[in-house]
C-alpha cells in the first residue's frame, strides 16, 4: 500500500490507487447482475463519479451541501458517494430500515438537497414524506421502472432516475472536468465529509460530523496496524454502508489499499455468496459469528456416534494447538500432526462454507463473546476485533494481526489517547497510546474516554450536545465501561446499561447476557433488575432449535400473544438457564424469565439500526410483564 502524502481526502484515495497501485482497468467492484457476477474497474468507477459530479455542479450543488443516500450496498452507492465527495458535498447516509418519521427528521435536520433511493419500497416511503421536506430538491430512484410508481401531482421535488442522471452527467463531464478537478484538489482535510445520524438507545437522532481528516487518518493508521491486508485481497461487503464501521473497514480500506470490494446480494444470500466470491477478508458483527458457531456445533454433534466424537476431538485438538501457538510454545510433532488431521476431517469443511480463502474476519459493532472468538481460533481462522463509535470515525482500538487476546478489542491505534476515567470521582485512572503499549499492562475499569484525530467535529447544529460529549480538555466521553487487560482494551458494558440492584451491587448486563447466549436454545436475552432485589430476563428462543424440538409450525410465531406460556418450552429454556447460571455469581443469576415469541424489532422501536436493544423502551413497553415476574417470584418465596 502506498503511504503517499497526497492521501488526505476521501476522493484522493481512489486517485492514488490508479496512480500508484493498480492500472485503471483493474477490477475494483464486483456485484451480481441477474445470474452473473460483474466486474467493474477503477476507471469505470471514477468515470461514473465524474458524471455524478458534473450533473450536480450544473444543478448548483456546492461545498457543504448535504446529499442523501438511502440505498442497499452496491456500485451505485460508490458512484454517488465518490461523485458528491469530490465536489465537496457531504454524504448523509440513512438506514433503509428507519421509519418514515425518522427519515423525515434526518432529511429536514440535515437540510438535505437530494437523495438516492435504492428500491420501490424506499421510493414510496420518500414520496410520502417529501412534501414535508422543504429543502429537498431531487429524488433519485436507482432501480428500473420507477415511473410505474405514481408521484403526487403536487410534489415540488424533481424525480430523476439514477440511470438518467448518469447519462446526463456523462454528456456534460468534459464541460465540467476542469472544475471537478479544481474542487477536488482544493478540498481541505478539515472539510466535513459525512454526516452520520446516530440515535443510540435513547433520544433524538444526532448528526455526527466527520471530516475528511477523521476518515482518512482513521483508515491509514488502522492499515499500519493490519499489515496483512494486501492489494489483491477480496472483501465481501454485507453490513450496511450507512453504518460508519462498514464504510471505513471495507469501503475506505479497499479505496486505500487497492483491494477488490464485492457486494453480497442480501443477508439471506450471504452464505451462498461467500462460496461464489471466495473472499479473503470480511467485516461482520458478533451475532453472525455466533450463528456460524452455533450451526457448526449443532451440525458436528447432532448425529452423535463417531461423527460427533471426531468433531469434539478436532475442536479439542484445535484448542490445544491455538493455546500453545498463542503462548509461543513449541507445537511438537504429535500435536502438529493431530492438527493437520483435524484440519482435513473437520476444519476444512467449516471453512468451505466461507469460500475457503478467508485470511481473517474483522468483528465490530459489539463485543464478541470470548468463547466464540476462541472457537474460530481453534479452527485456525483469526477474528480481529476493533472498538469505536460513530463519533470516533469509528476505530479507537484494533487487534494486531500477530497477537490475539480473546475477550478484548485490541491495541490503541497510532495518534490518539485512550483513557480510563473513574465513574464517580472523574479522576483519570490511566492514559494509553500506541507508543506506551505494554503487553502485560492491566488497570481498573471505568469510563472509556478518547482524544485525538478520530474524534468527530461535533454534532450537527447541536452545540450543547457537543459540549456535553467533548469536555474542555477535548476528551470525548464514549459512555462505555472498560479497562486495559494485557495491553488491549476490554469492554465491560455501557455506562447507561449498568444495573444497580436494591443491595447496591453493580451488574454489567453484557457479560452476564453473553454467558446465557452460549446456549444454543437462546437467540437474544435482555436482563432486568435495576433497583430490584434480583435479576429477571426476557428471553428470545432460537427459533430453529425450538421448531425442531417441539415440531412447531411457522404459524406458532404469528400468534398475537407476546410471550410463550407453554410449560414444556419454558422448562426446555430453563434447563440451559440453570446450567449456565453456575458460571455466574449468585447476584448475577436470573431468578425468573419470560419467553418472548418473536425477536426484538426495529419496526417496533425496540432496537437501534446497529442492533442494540433500547433498554428504556423495552422496560417501559413490557413493564406489566416485568412486574409479573417479580410478583410471581415473590409468591414462590
TrEMBL record:
InterPro entries registered for this protein in UniProt: AMP-binding_CS, AMP-dep_synth/lig_dom, ANL_N_sf
Keyword Zinc-finger: no
CDD domains for the chain: VL_LC_FACS_like
Origin: domain of life: Bacteria
MF annotations from Gene Ontology: ATP binding; long-chain fatty acid-CoA ligase activity
GO cellular component: membrane
Pfam families the record matches: AMP-binding (PF00501), AMP-binding_C_3 (PF23562)
Domain AMP-dependent synthetase/ligase: 24-460
Record Gene3D superfamilies: N-terminal domain of ligase-like
Keywords: ATP-binding, Nucleotide-binding
Keyword Glycosyltransferase: no
Annotated PANTHER family: AMP-BINDING DOMAIN-CONTAINING PROTEIN-RELATED (PTHR43272:SF33), LONG-CHAIN-FATTY-ACID--COA LIGASE (PTHR43272)
Protein name: Long-chain acyl-CoA synthetase
Amino acid at each position: 500500500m502506498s503511504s503517499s502524502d497526497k492521501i488526505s481526502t476521501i476522493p484522493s484515495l481512489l486517485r492514488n490507487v490508479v496512480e500508484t497501485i493498480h492500472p485503471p482497468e483493474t477490477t475494483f467492484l464486483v456485484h451480481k447482475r441477474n445470474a452473473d457476477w460483474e466486474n467493474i474497474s477503477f476507471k469505470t468507477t471514477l468515470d461514473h463519479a465524474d458524471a455524478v459530479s458534473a450533473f450536480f455542479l450544473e444543478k448548483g450543488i456546492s461545498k457543504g451541501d448535504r446529499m442523501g443516500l438511502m440505498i442497499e450496498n452496491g456500485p451505485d452507492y460508490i458512484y454517488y458517494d465518490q461523485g458528491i465527495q469530490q465536489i465537496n458535498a457531504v454524504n448523509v447516509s440513512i438506514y433503509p430500515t428507519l421509519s418514515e418519521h425518522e427519515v423525515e427528521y434526518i432529511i429536514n435536520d440535515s437540510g438535505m438537497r437530494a437523495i438516492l433511493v435504492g428500491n420501490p419500497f424506499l421510493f414510496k416511503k420518500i414520496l410520502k414524506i417529501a412534501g414535508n421536506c422543504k429543502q429537498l430538491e431531487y429524488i433519485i430512484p436507482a432501480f428500473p421502472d420507477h415511473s410505474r410508481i405514481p408521484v403526487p401531482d403536487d410534489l415540488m421535488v424533481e424525480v430523476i432516475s439514477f440511470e438518467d442522471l448518469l447519462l446526463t452527467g456523462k454528456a456534460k463531464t468534459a464541460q465540467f472536468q476542469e472544475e471537478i478537478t479544481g474542487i477536488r484538489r482544493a478540498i481541505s482535510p478539515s472539510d466535513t465529509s459525512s454526516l452520520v445520524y446516530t440515535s443510540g438507545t435513547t433520544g433524538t437522532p444526532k448528526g455526527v460530523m466527520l471530516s475528511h481528516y477523521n476518515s482518512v487518518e482513521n483508515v491509514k493508521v488502522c492499515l499500519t496496524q493490519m499489515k496483512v491486508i494486501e492489494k489483491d485481497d477480496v472483501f465481501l461487503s454485507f453490513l450496511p454502508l450507512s453504518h460508519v464501521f462498514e464504510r471505513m473497514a471495507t469501503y475506505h480500506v479497499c479505496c486505500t489499499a487497492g483491494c477488490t470490494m464485492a457486494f453480497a446480494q442480501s443477508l439471506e444470500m450471504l452464505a451462498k455468496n461467500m462460496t461464489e466470491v471466495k473472499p479473503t477478508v470480511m467485516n461482520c458483527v458478533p451475532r453472525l459469528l455466533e450463528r456460524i458457531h452455533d450451526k457448526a456445533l449443532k451440525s458436528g454433534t447432532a448425529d452423535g456416534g463417531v461423527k460427533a466424537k471426531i468433531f469434539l476431538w478436532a475442536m479439542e485438538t484445535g484448542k490445544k494447538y491455538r493455546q500453545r501457538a498463542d503462548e509461543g510454545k513449541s507445537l511438537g510433532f504429535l500435536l502438529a500432526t493431530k492438527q493437520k488431521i483435524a484440519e482435513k476431517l473437520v476444519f476444512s469443511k467449516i471453512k468451505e462454507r466461507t469460500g475457503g480463502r478467508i485470511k481473517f474476519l474483522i468483528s465490530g459493532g459489539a463485543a464478541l463473546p470470548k468463547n466464540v472468538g476462541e472457537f474460530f481460533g481453534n479452527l485456525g481462522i483469526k477474528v480481529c476485533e476493533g472498538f469505536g463509535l460513530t463519533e470516533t470515525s469509528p476505530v479507537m482500538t484494533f487487534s494486531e494481526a500477530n497477537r490475539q487476546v480473546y475477550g478484548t478489542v485490541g491495541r490503541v491505534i497510532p495518534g490518539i489517547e485512550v483513557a480510563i476515567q473513574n465513574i464517580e470521582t472523574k479522576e483519570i485512572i490511566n492514559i494509553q497510546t500506541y507508543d506506551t503499549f505494554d503487553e502485560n499492562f492491566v488497570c481498573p475499569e471505568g469510563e472509556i474516554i478518547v482524544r485525538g484525530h478520530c474524534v468527530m467535529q461535533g454534532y450537527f447544529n447541536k452545540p450543547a450536545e457537543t459540549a456535553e460529549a467533548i469536555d474542555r480538555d477535548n476528551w470525548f466521553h464514549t459512555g462505555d465501561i472498560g479497562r486495559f487487560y494485557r495491553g488491549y482494551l476490554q469492554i465491560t458494558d455501557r455506562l447507561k446499561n449498568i444495573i444497580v440492584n436494591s443491595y447496591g451491587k453493580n451488574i454489567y448486563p453484557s457479560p452476564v447476557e453473553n454467558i446465557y447466549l452460549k446456549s444454543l436454545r437462546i437467540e437474544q436475552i435482555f436482563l432486568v433488575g435495576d433497583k430490584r432485589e434480583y435479576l429477571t430476563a426476557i428471553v428470545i428462543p432460537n427459533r430453529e432449535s425450538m421448531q425442531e424440538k417441539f415440531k412447531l409450525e411457522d404459524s406458532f410465531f404469528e400468534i398475537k400473544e407476546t410471550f410463550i406460556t407453554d410449560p414444556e418450552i419454558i422448562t426446555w429454556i430453563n434447563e440451559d438457564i440453570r446450567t449456565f447460571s453456575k458460571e455466574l455469581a449468585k447476584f448475577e443469576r436470573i431468578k425468573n424469565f419470560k419467553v418472548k415469541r418473536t425477536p426484538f424489532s426495529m419496526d417496533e422501536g425496540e432496537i437501534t439500526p446497529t442492533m442494540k436493544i433500547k433498554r428504556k423502551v423495552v422496560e417501559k413497553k413490557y413493564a406489566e410483564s416485568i412486574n409479573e415476574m417479580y410478583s410471581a417470584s415473590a409468591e414462590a418465596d
